[in-house]
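User: Just a sanity check before I run the rest of the batch. Below are the structure tokens for the first item. I only need the designed sequence back.
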């Protein structure tokens, strides 16, 4: 959640960080504005985009009679596609010196970066490398006195300013951890004529997971910055992003939603939105989702693309039937279902006899149907034509050896953390049905109970006295899940599979720093888990899409994993193992670590990698393959290639950074010898080709 300047400063004030006096003024209030501070005043547009000053979004008023006209001038601006919902009015500051200060969670460096600049300004990165000092701050240790001193000395200030600077920086870091911030930027940080440090401008981004877990953070959400549809979706718990096309999109699972969005965009059927139903497509959520798309005049047709994993397509169909009230939909709906209960789900929808509902056997047929519904004057939106499935020469053998192994099999003894909860019990039962060797469960203060024939203990340490544990699976709420991972690692459980999503990023940064020397391989968080087809399952993956075979499937997405596994299986290609490494920015065992084990896994003859926009996981894997001469063929697919920059699509880790990076990701994989597929339709055939 990105905050505007006004709300950023409100948060700073709560954290005892000095800011100028400021008043929010909304359209219609400018006539009655009477501040208690002296002229001149600065009127500042409150928008979530940069460059407002150059675009006329910050204006000075020296005469109060000019205030109303100046305010209206700003209200009428369009700043890079953003309207101005309100302005912040501040008195002119007495500036003695200006600096730059920020704290930012770094995905690449797995820490918080403290950046201090001797000069502030709009183009801070262009002021020369000597201007900035960047220091790594590790969690849970936090900001150390020597880092505060180093930052202060970099500014080349007199000793008398140190106390005030140290207080401000300490307060800013406390705000970072207390409010779950991903970024806290003060630019400029000034020294006033009175010698005080003041945050003259501020920009804050809050972890969405922290917002979800902390009700009081809702006061900082500014509904005016989002569209009506985005606010309604947010209220309903749906992941929704507005896009400029005409095809409404509704999918379950962020990875599959991104892949479907790409398919539409590359087929000249541009998507009007990204909408992930998630795993709880009940009638209320379905009704909200349909209303969002029915009420959007931009949407001319709707494509519903579902793969039933844990989610039942039959239940979705019943929910949709109820939401429509048995009537034909207002706009054409093309629906494709696969996976769990897909046949019965499609029968329910077919029985409605609605003229506007079109049943598609597969995604290709859905695209063909949508093509017949193209409006007369569709919006012209161009996307770069994707390259055909391509690869360059495979890397040479480097003589690299490794003793890493993938040792999970039907005999692996499994412990379930959170076994007494609803999700824990459900998936324990499903894992047992598949033959998983579940020997123990842990729920604090529930020790001595038995669940589904499994003894329950108060702690892992207690369980270890009686059982050998080869892997732990975690079904624990987000506030406690990081500590559950820590417990597994401190007890040196070989594998810890964290299913939980919605964990605050700071928590995982802290945990991974604490367990970096432990032997535990952490999968996740936000993972569907691990399956070794025909042997065992440690996760929530549906078993129907999988069958034993020679191909390992590694993925950052759950539903996309099931979709691709089903396509492979339908083509007669089984899987040696499947691991969802997790969709969060900070995860444990990644692609590289899995490849290190797979290179010695005799059952695996080829690997399918399902990646996403955001982060460097795929680039790091490509570099590893080249440097070590990994000799098994790799087929790759990246979801979210047509995503708008700066928008987070479902997964916390799925965000295309502004400035691009997707083409570089694809090219690095091609140069590493991967067969890079442009579409889900290509994966099975390309995999078959590599096995010949």
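Assistant: Here's the designed sequence for the first item:
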């Amino acid at each position: 959640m990105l905050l505007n300047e006004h709300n950023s400063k409100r948060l700073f004030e709560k954290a005892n960080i000095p800011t100028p006096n400021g008043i929010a003024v909304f359209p219609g209030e400018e006539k009655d504005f009477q501040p208690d501070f002296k002229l001149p005043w600065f009127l500042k547009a409150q928008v979530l985009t940069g460059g407002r000053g150059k675009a006329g979004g910050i204006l000075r008023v020296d005469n109060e009679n000019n205030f109303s006209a100046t305010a209206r001038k700003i209200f009428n601006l369009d700043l890079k596609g953003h309207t101005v919902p309100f302005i912040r009015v501040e008195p002119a500051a007495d500036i003695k010196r200006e600096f730059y200060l920020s704290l930012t969670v770094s995905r690449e460096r797995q820490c918080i970066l403290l950046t201090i600049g001797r000069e502030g300004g709009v183009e801070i990165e262009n002021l020369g490398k000597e201007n900035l000092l960047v220091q790594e701050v590790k969690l849970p240790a936090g900001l150390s006195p020597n880092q505060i001193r180093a930052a202060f000395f970099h500014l080349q200030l007199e000793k008398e300013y140190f106390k005030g600077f140290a207080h401000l920086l300490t307060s800013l870091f406390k705000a970072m951890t207390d409010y779950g911030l991903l970024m806290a930027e003060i630019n400029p940080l000034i020294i006033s004529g009175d010698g005080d440090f003041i945050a003259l401008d501020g920009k804050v981004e809050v972890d969405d997971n922290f917002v979800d877990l902390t009700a009081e953070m809702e006061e900082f959400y500014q509904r005016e910055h989002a569209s009506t549809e985005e606010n309604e979706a947010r209220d309903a718990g749906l992941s929704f992003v507005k896009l400029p096309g005409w095809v409404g999109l509704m999918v379950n699972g962020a990875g599959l939603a991104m892949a479907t969005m790409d398919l539409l965009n590359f087929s000249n059927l541009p998507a009007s939105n990204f909408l992930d139903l998630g795993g709880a497509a009940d009638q209320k959520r379905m009704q909200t989702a349909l209303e969002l798309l029915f009420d959007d005049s931009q949407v001319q047709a709707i494509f519903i693309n579902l793969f039933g994993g844990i989610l039942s397509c039959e239940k979705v169909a019943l929910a949709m039937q109820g939401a429509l009230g048995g009537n034909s939909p207002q706009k054409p709906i093309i629906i494709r279902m696969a996976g769990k209960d897909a046949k019965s789900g499609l029968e329910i929808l077919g029985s409605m006899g609605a003229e506007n509902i079109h049943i598609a056997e597969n995604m290709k047929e859905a695209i063909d149907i949508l093509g017949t519904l193209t409006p007369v004057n569709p919006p012209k939106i161009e996307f770069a034509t994707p390259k055909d499935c391509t690869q360059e020469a495979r890397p040479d053998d480097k003589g690299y050896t490794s003793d890493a192994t993938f040792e999970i099999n039907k005999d692996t003894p499994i412990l379930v953390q959170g076994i007494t909860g609803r999700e824990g019990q459900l998936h324990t039962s499903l894992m047992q049905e598949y033959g998983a060797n579940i020997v123990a469960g842990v729920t604090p203060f529930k020790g001595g109970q038995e669940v589904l024939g499994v003894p329950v203990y108060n702690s892992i340490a207690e369980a270890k006295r009686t059982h050998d544990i080869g892997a732990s699976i975690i079904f624990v709420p987000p506030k406690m899940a990081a500590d559950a991972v820590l417990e597994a690692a401190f007890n040196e459980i070989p594998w810890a599979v964290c299913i939980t999503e919605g964990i605050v990023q700071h928590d995982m940064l802290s945990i991974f720093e604490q367990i970096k020397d432990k032997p535990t391989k952490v999968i996740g968080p936000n993972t569907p888990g691990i399956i070794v087809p025909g042997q065992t399952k440690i996760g929530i993956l549906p078993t129907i899409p999988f069958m034993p075979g020679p191909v390992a499937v590694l993925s950052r997405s759950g539903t996309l994993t099931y979709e691709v596994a089903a396509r492979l299986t339908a083509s007669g290609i089984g899987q040696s193992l499947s691991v969802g490494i997790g969709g969060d920015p900070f995860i444990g065992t990644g692609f590289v670590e899995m490849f290190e084990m797979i290179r010695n896994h005799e059952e695996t003859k080829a690997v399918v990698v399902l990646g996403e926009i955001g982060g460097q996981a795929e680039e790091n894997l490509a570099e590893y393959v080249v440097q070590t001469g990994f000799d098994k063929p790799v087929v790759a697919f990246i979801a979210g290639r047509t995503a708008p920059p700066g928008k987070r699509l479902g997964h916390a880790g799925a965000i295309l950074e502004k400035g691009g990076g997707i083409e570089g990701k694809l090219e690095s994989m091609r140069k590493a010898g991967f067969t890079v597929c442009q579409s889900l339709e290509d994966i099975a055939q390309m995999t078959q080709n590599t096995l010949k």
